[in-house]
Design a protein that fits this description.
The structure holds two protein chains of two kinds. Chain A is mainly alpha-helical. Chain A contains 13 helices and no strands. Chain A folds into two domains: about 1-50; about 65-300, MetI-like fold. The two termini of chain B are about 45 Å apart. Classes of the chains: A mainly alpha, B alpha/beta. The structure holds adenosine-5'-triphosphate (ATP) and magnesium ion.
């Protein structure tokens, strides 16, 4: 008797649960369709394409196995682009995060005109990358550019900053830091405002210096933000190449060719779509590995409220 | 042991006079309560003593030293914040010894003092938890632990019990008072709860709009309120203030001092509220309402006629114009004397 009753209830519950779940699925459908057709399917297609040859005229694509990957390993420009990207990451990520944190702590304090400062720091972020690149193109131009005019005051000779393979990549690094620090600052600023001023007062009563308070309290409490910013910074380091298109086009001598820029050149300049797909798969793998690694290793050391 | 002296201190923000010419002193090893309604300047006064705000004028001395221009760390004080201000990512133990670490106290001594404080506050089993894993009362104890481990002679508390339920609040009240007496701390304790003030304090400062309304021991505050405001702020239900047709004087009489019976002023019962140990009876006297606390359960029909009387020494006289207490009214008007029992 009880079993029977329980069975009826269970059946009724599933019966009732079916209609809402259909509703749920229907509501999800538009987003799901967009996601599948513009994100998941292209990803899958890219992976498949990387195992085929590039179709040329009447010649259709044929399955070539890992041939594209073998070609990639023998491609010195690929290695150059990958190495450039590593240098670019190391050059931009820690510096822009540190600068963002510094600016956020600075404008979070009680100082006159901080509203203006916040705006000033944030301005590079709202400018389009193309515009930013053009501004810096002028700064770096030989002899009459801002950088050379300043160094000339100290008697340094004129230099072609963007034309010299030894300095070109570092110029790009500087532009990126300038562009990204303000953006990351906003996240730090939002997180800093969540920290109760009572904590600083409690620490001040105990005689903690501002640096001690930052080291023991502020910085650990900002760890979730740092993790978030770090992931974004890494993704951006592989994703943003607009300024390279404007400033150097990967030159001189591939000194500023980043991975995504190289993919763009292969795909849309040389129309070698399979090789571009192969390089894209590598890029995706790198990003996935970095993201998973960050969340797995850093997550444990982060305090979430 | 340190005496705290606050000497004509003011704090002005634009047009707000948050604290307005306040002077008082807390004796060494005593518990002083700052009491008053919301926004009267209690927290501001406390923060001025702590050095978290700077005074607009006046001086503050702690243990004989003028600390007015000293930073908080140099004032030899500990403080418990209303919100506890615990560091959310540190364990209970790390929160408590935070100050010792700042001051580079040796590890052995740190451990020993932590053990002592944890035992005192019953925190032994919670030392490895994070603040988010504690109940409100436990968090409060951690905040208290952080304050007392410093062994500072002065401890300031800003409504530390306001987030707790009645039961826990009652317990913590006794614990804090016991601790304060045991350690001989000079404590300044902010609250807007008169019961808390009455039960804990050696001395109560009643504030109103940035000024001191009365500075007295709890018993005096209850027995001899200096103003109508003080009279109505202390005691539940508050003191009845009746004009009884007079223009220059107000008569104050506590609900528990009014006797319901067949003698005295004529009145009509409006309502009776049974509270368990006693009943609060609201009576209409002329055009005014008077509350009477009658012991036990008293049943009255609404509109029933009754009479109110009181002992002569239970009367408080106040000046109708200034609201200040008048102890010089010895020959009370005949028609009022008539209603009192000699
Ligand atoms: N930083 C500030 N700037 C301007 N006005 C302030 C500031 N802090 C407090 N005040 C004002 O000073 C007055 C006293 O505030 P205070 O915080 O001391 O009140 P309180 O007695 O502690 O009240 P509560 O019981 O609600 O905590 C209030 O009118 C308040 O608005
Ligand atoms: Mg307050």
């Amino acid at each position: 008797m009880t079993e029977l009753a329980a069975g009826t209830i269970a059946r009724r519950r599933t019966g009732r649960g079916f209609i809402p779940s259909i509703h749920g699925w229907l509501l999800l459908l538009p987003a799901a369709v967009l996601l599948v057709s513009f994100t998941h399917w292209p990803t899958a297609a890219t992976i498949i394409d990387s195992f085929f040859s590039t179709p040329k005229g009447a010649r259709p694509a044929v399955f070539v196995g890992v041939e594209n990957y073998e070609a990639m390993l023998d491609d010195p420009i690929f290695w150059r682009a990958l190495w450039n990207n590593v240098v670019y990451c190391i050059g931009t990520i820690p510096a822009s995060i540190a600068l963002a944190l510094l600016m956020a702590v600075f404008v979070n304090g009680r100082l006159a005109g901080r509203g203006f400062l916040r705006l000033a720091y944030f301005t590079p972020t709202v400018l389009p990358m193309i515009a930013v690149a053009n501004i810096w193109l002028f700064f770096f131009s030989p002899s009459y550019g801002l950088v050379d005019q300043v160094t000339a005051l100290f008697g340094a000779p004129a230099r072609n900053w963007l034309g010299d393979p030894s300095t070109a990549l570092w110029c790009i690094v500087v532009v990126t830091i300038w562009k990204e620090a303000g953006f990351f600052m906003i996240f730090y600023l939002a997180a800093l405002q969540q920290i109760s001023p009572r904590l600083a007062e409690a620490a001040a009563l105990e005689g903690a210096s501002r640096w001690y308070f930052f080291r023991r309290i502020t910085f650990p409490l900002l760890m979730p933000t740092t993790l978030f910013v770090l992931v974004n910074a890494v993704i951006n380091a592989f994703r943003l190449v607009d300024h390279i298109v404007v400033m150097t086009r990967g030159g001189p001598d591939n000194a500023t060719a980043l991975l995504l820029f190289y993919i763009y050149e292969i795909g849309f300049k040389f129309w070698d779509t399979s090789y571009a797909a192969t390089l894209t798969v590598v890029l995706l793998a790198i990003l996935a590995a970095v993201a998973i690694g960050q969340f797995l290793f850093l997550d444990r050391r982060v305090h979430y409220q | 042991m340190a005496r705290i002296e606050v000497d004509s201190v003011s704090k002005v923000w634009g047009a707000t006079r948050a604290v307005d010419g306040v002077s008082f002193a807390a004796g060494a090893g005593s518990l002083l309560v700052l009491l008053g309604p919301s926004g009267c300047g209690k927290s501001t006064t406390l923060r001025l003593i702590a050095g978290l705000e700077s005074v607009s004028s006046g001086r503050i001395r702690i243990g004989g030293t003028d600390v007015t221009d000293l930073p908080p760390a140099k004032r030899q004080i500990a403080m418990v914040f209303q919100s506890y201000a615990l560091f959310p990512h540190l364990t209970v133990a790390e929160n408590i010894v935070f100050g010792l670490r700042v001051r580079r106290t040796g590890a052995a001594e740190r451990r020993e003092r932590l053990a002592r404080v944890a035992a005192l506050l019953g925190l032994d089993k919670l030392l490895d938890r994070k603040p988010a894993q504690l109940s409100g009362g436990q968090q409060q104890r951690v905040a208290l632990g952080r304050a007392i481990i410093a062994e500072k002679p002065v401890c300031l508390m800003d409504e530390p019990l306001s987030n707790l339920d009645a039961q826990l609040r009652h317990e913590m009240r006794r614990e804090i008072r016991a601790l304060q007496q045991k350690l001989g701390i000079t404590m300044v304790y902010v609250t807007h709860d008169q019961t808390e003030a009455m039960s804990m304090a050696d001395q109560v400062i009643l504030m109103r709009e940035g000024r001191i309304e009365q500075d007295a021991a709890p018993a005096v505050l209850y027995a001899k309120p200096a103003t109508v405001f003080a009279a109505r702020f202390i005691g539940t239900p508050p003191m009845n203030i009746l004009s009884l047709g007079r223009k220059d004087l107000l008569l104050g009489i506590r609900p528990e001092d009014v006797i319901l019976g067949d003698r005295g002023i004529e009145a009509q019962v409006e309502s009776a509220e049974y509270l368990g140990a006693d009943t609060i009876v609201a009576c209409r006297v002329g055009g005014e309402l008077a509350l009477v606390r009658a012991p036990g359960r008293v049943d009255f029909a609404s509109g029933a006629p009754t009479r109110l009387s009181w002992r002569r020494d239970a009367i408080h006289w106040f000046d109708a114009a200034t609201g200040r207490r008048r102890d010089d009214v010895t020959d009370a008007p005949q028609d009022l004397i008539r209603e009192t029992i000699a």
